[in-house]
Amino acid sequence: MADWLTDPDNPLVARVFVNRVWMHLMGEGIVRTVDNFGVQGERPSHPELLDFLASDFLRGGWQLKPLIRQIVTTQAYQRSSALNSISNEIDPENRLLWRMHRRRLPAEAIRDTMLVAANQLDRTPRFEPMKGMGVLVSNNNSNSNAKIESLSQSCRTLYMPVVRGYVPALLSALDAADPDLLVGKRPTTNVPGQALVLINSPEIQQWSEAAAQRICRDHDKFSLRIDEAYRCCFQRMPTAEDRELATAFFAGQENSTSRWHAFVAAMFAATEFRLLD
């Protein structure tokens, strides 16, 4: 079976693999039905490109890094996500790749970004994610604290242990993959429940408070604190309108810890925080 799958005369596996890598980098696959390459699936938007990437991937010995480098150095990957009315009228679904897809960050990246803003992210690789997690493994039920301990870890979400039958509420609300199912492409939803979780989650409250304390500790001037909040949350500097709204929000309470906590928490819950332009 392994020989048949990797046989150069059988390019199907390489096509499927390359298409999934393209989907993760570009937002949509060349074949949008990533789990279905059969007659019931969609036709590829660029079949020659898919064949070229698959053939090159095979010749390169199934090496993933060169494939990623090949895609991210293209003009298509580096294009802006800004809309153009003429192009949008001709190709509203962006199948011709005239712009980058504006897409939401995956659940893992959103959680990690909050930890970075709070200066609490542990970047150490976890080679044994289940080590020291005996309670989580052996006593995973509604009466244990195992679930809370799982999300409260400061490691990257990638290294968090996966417990079948349970996905933390924060990750579940942001469309994390169900460990009980095979998920080739995650759904991307925008529902009121996400806002409720982002506002009320105890973990997010803790991270936003830590981020607010760090911002106030590192900067004395109000304007610099606003700059840092926008830089760490939105990866940009605030506009003049942003500064006016922030000034109105604080209303003379620029040194109030609770105000800064609420300000950062609101930024964590903002749509811009979750989108990749």
From TrEMBL:
Matching Pfam families: PSD1 (PF07587)
Residue span, DUF1553 domain: 1-249
Domain of life: Bacteria
Listed InterPro entries: DUF1553 (IPR022655)
Protein name: Protein containing DUF1549
Provenance organism: Rhodopirellula maiorica SM1
